[in-house]
Amino acid sequence: MAIMVSTSLLSGCSFKYSFSGASIPPEVKTLFIANFQNDALGPANLGQDFTDRLKEYYQQNSSLDIVDRNGDWSISGSVTNYSVAPIALTAQSAAASNRLTIAINVVFESKKDETKNFTQSFSQFADFPQNQTLSQVETEKINEIFEKLLLDIFNRTAANW
Fold first, then answer.
1. Which residue, 45, 56, 98, 129, is most buried by CB atoms nearer than 10 A?
2. What's the mean pLDDT in 8-35?
């Protein structure tokens, strides 16, 4: 009996909830993700790789259907920064670590609620020891940064955080 009451109470909620913490209005069923442009001096496939990972993330963490155009929600943008800089200088003025930073500009549009629309830059980084070159750690660090960026973007769009 308690299960039936709980189920009927939950069915009256105005948002879909998932185990990922997503809180997506029930009228939002589809998502269009445009190919992200690479406007930074990074690997040529960076924008496409980010686009693919973003689509996968929403497929795994929401009930939204990814569509080729005209979604209830749409996400577009570009990679605006890809840079490496030394951090944690030592007494000999040599970098003890290096920091890879990636910034993504995101344009989010909702056909169902235009008050949710936004344009925002998201930036994340990953550090690596100075005795390693970027080419040695690049794939691993890009994946690490993408995971952080994906979570930030998902939380901003679907989790209402």
1. 98
2. 67
